[in-house]
Design a protein that fits this description.
By secondary structure, the chain is an alpha/beta fold. The protein has three domains: 1-49, no CATH class; 67-275, Rossmann fold; 280-449, Ribosomal Protein S5, domain 2, CATH 3.30.230. The protein is 24% helix and 25% strand. Strands 8-7-9-10-6-11-12-13-14 form a nine-stranded mixed beta sheet, with helices on both faces. A four-stranded mixed beta sheet has the order 15-16-18-17. Strands 3-2-4 form a three-stranded antiparallel beta sheet, with no helix packed on it. A hairpin with a 7-residue loop joins strand 12 (245-253) and strand 13. Helix 2 crosses helix 3, helix 7 (329-342) crosses helix 8 (368-380) and helix 8 packs across helix 10. The longest helix is centred in the middle third of the chain and has 18 residues, at 188-205.
Length: 456
């Protein structure tokens, strides 16, 4: 309960939701111009004790049966969720336009409905007929799957009350608006009101709610930052338009691990989970090729065997070109400097191109050694022998540093048939099903991984 003390003007930023006591031209929190507007909110309210909905009880007497994961039928989606959707939970799935969010969710909704659980899809961006066309294309039609095209929050609540689904999918939260809140749909106040209302419905009715969110041009989730704090799970759907590979990363999960990654293959007939995606990131060649090297990266808790390629050639320009695809350009530039300094291999007058296979992005330092071997092999015209993987971080002094999850990386490489791993000191384990060669610096690594290199 609250009692009114005074009425004061209030101001809020439409971009970040920062609340201010007076109007300013530039938001002090997000530094955006012209986004601060008056909200006409009442200030000075005093909160007093009121009736409680459920009496507090000892934690040992609280039943955890209602918080058990229920699978969606999509194994890769269940992996990042921690086992499936929890009744009463709210999940936020964000991603760029066209990445495949709606396709994935309609496919999961059909499998949930096929298992006898009622599912409701509320679309604010498409008509019900358009959703039906997509469902027909990917084979996602089920009797217990309901579709409603609405943009009003009151109408959405009416559909939920009439259908009483176990799972509700709202695509997207930025298209739903409430007539009781000022501003257009997608604004800070509207998104906060819609999310808060749907969260309250999820907790009281026990329905799992999945909210689809847009992202800004910087890749951040659009809307107020409080949206990510209110929901139980935050998933980021990533993918390159030029590649069929799609990945879901967990950035927040109250019911499971927050570092899992799910891999999918986006096809013409739908989206398919990839329980073993390592094969997508390898170029299946018969003989070793100069300028290629295989490494093992960690995506969350999953070890992925990926291939790095490099091409070194002459240039007529005064400034040689350095181009990367799927790799950190700053990291590659640092490795080029280390190679020139400690291997005395001149690359300043040569163009260097480096890339990954399959559209995967590598950012962790554990791939440094593989990138360096690929560049040196391309420059000298020698190939890393077949069956060899390279794992390790390269320092500015040319030393190799240990990496995390060494046992999982080596086990994944051995599973795919690799026989030898060049690793930093301390990473070779006696129980690893693969022969490990521990090297202390990049010079020793070149000697073991490129034995036919000869001179410079």
């Amino acid at each position: 309960m609250a009692t009114r003390a005074a009425l004061r003007p209030s101001y809020r930023c439409d971009d970040c939701g920062c609340e201010l006591a007076k109007w300013v031209g530039r938001c002090p929190q997000c530094q955006a111009w012209g986004t601060v507007a008056e909200t006409n909110a009442e200030r000075g309210l005093t909160v007093v004790a009121g009736p409680v909905s459920v009496a507090a009880q000892p934690i040992g007497e609280v039943s955890a049966i209602d918080a058990v994961h229920r699978p969606t039928g999509e194994p890769e989606l269940d992996r990042v969720l921690g086992g499936g959707l929890v009744p009463g939970s709210v999940v936020l799935l964000a991603g760029e336009p066209g990445v495949g969010k709606s396709t994935l969710l309609i496919s999961a909704a059909a499998k949930i409905a096929g298992g006898g659980r009622r599912c409701l899809v509320v679309t604010g961006e498409e008509s019900a007929a358009q959703v039906r066309l997509r469902a027909d294309r990917i084979g996602a039609v089920a009797p217990q799957l309901f579709v409603a095209a609405e943009t009003d929050l009151g109408a959405v609540l009416g559909h939920i009350e009439a259908v009483r689904p176990e799972v509700v999918i709202v695509d997207s939260v930025q298209t739903i608006g409430s007539a009781l809140v000022d501003g257009s749909p997608g604004g800070v106040a509207q998104v906060r009101e819609v999310a808060t209302t749907l969260i309250r419905v999820a907790k009281t009715a026990g329905s799992a709610v999945v909210l689809v969110g847009h992202v800004t041009k910087d890749g951040a989730i659009a809307g107020p930052r409080t949206l990510e704090h209110l929901v139980d799970v935050v998933l980021c759907f990533e993918g390159d338009r030029t590649s069929r590979l799609r990945m879901i990363r967990t950035t927040k999960n109250r019911f499971g691990p927050a570092d899992e990654v799910g891999c999918f293959d986006l096809r013409d007939d739908g989206i398919v989970g990839l329980p073993d995606p390592s094969g997508l990131f390898l170029a299946h060649g018969v003989t070793p090729v100069p300028g290629t090297c295989v490494t093992v990266t960690m995506e969350g808790r999953r070890a992925l065997v990926t291939e790095v390629q490099a091409l070194v050639g002459p240039t007529q320009a005064s400034t040689p070109r350095r181009a990367t695809s799927g790799l950190d350009s700053a990291r590659v530039a640092m490795l080029l400097a280390v190679i020139e300094r400690w291997l005395e291999l001149s690359l300043s007058a040569r163009e260097v191109y480096s890339a990954t296979v399959g559209g995967v992005r590598i950012s962790e330092p554990a791939s440094d050694l593989a990138i360096a071997l690929a560049i040196v092999g391309a420059a000298r015209g020698t190939a890393v022998p077949a069956g060899v993987v390279a794992i390790g971080e390269v320092g500015l002094a040319g030393e190799l540093r240990p990496v995390s999850a060494a046992r999982a990386r080596l086990a994944e490489a051995a599973r795919l048939g690799f026989s030898t791993a060049v690793v930093p000191p301390g990473c070779g384990t006696s129980s690893a099903p693969i022969r490990t060669v521990e090297v202390a610096d990049i010079t020793s690594a070149i000697h073991h991984a490129l034995p036919r290199a000869g001179g410079r």
